[in-house]
Prior knowledge:
5-stranded mixed sheet, 10 helices, globular
Amino acid sequence: MTHPILYSFRRCPYAMRARMGLLASGIAVELREVVLRDKPAQMLTASPKGTVPVLVLPDGGVIDESLDIMRWALAQSDPLGWLARDDAALIARNDGPFKQHLDRYKYPGRHGSDPAEHRAAGLTILLEMDARLAAGSKVGDRQLCGDVAGIADIATFPFIRQFAATDQAWFDAQPLPHLQRWLAGHIGSDLFARAMLRLPPWKAGDDVVVFGGR
Length: 214
């Protein structure tokens, strides 16, 4: 194995942030796009829980949590200083309460939930983030932990992107000017475009696709 192997699914917000963390670090990986309804045996052998992303290291080690992949990559190399702009509590709220409301808003049939109730609860969290982005800002590109993006921004925005896209017209009409600007900036970034590389589903014997690196 020349590079670590990353099993990923392009549209998964967890996989998005892992890919962006790897890109920011400059670490090259072999990228394997998976189909969640037909997961490759090699991925399930590495991580039987069957969720993406999964990073298999050259020494056989496995990292199968997206935040752990980000932090591992940035611990090797952090040229943009992302780790200096961290907020573990904010990320935990995103991954916990906000993700629960997002799922029950976006997939009410799957959860037997009232989407309006969970949309409103998610909006309450987003209003707090909008106020945080607004506080003390003297520049146009205010981020969650200062005026430069860091791991807190990249770890959270894929989920807010998904929340917004559930009903884009409704989201655009909400009093979230700072958050809407912040979100649009990350969606329109070169880093996000690189992270959203389109690949066919991987199968054994395919040519290696090297992702990232310098």
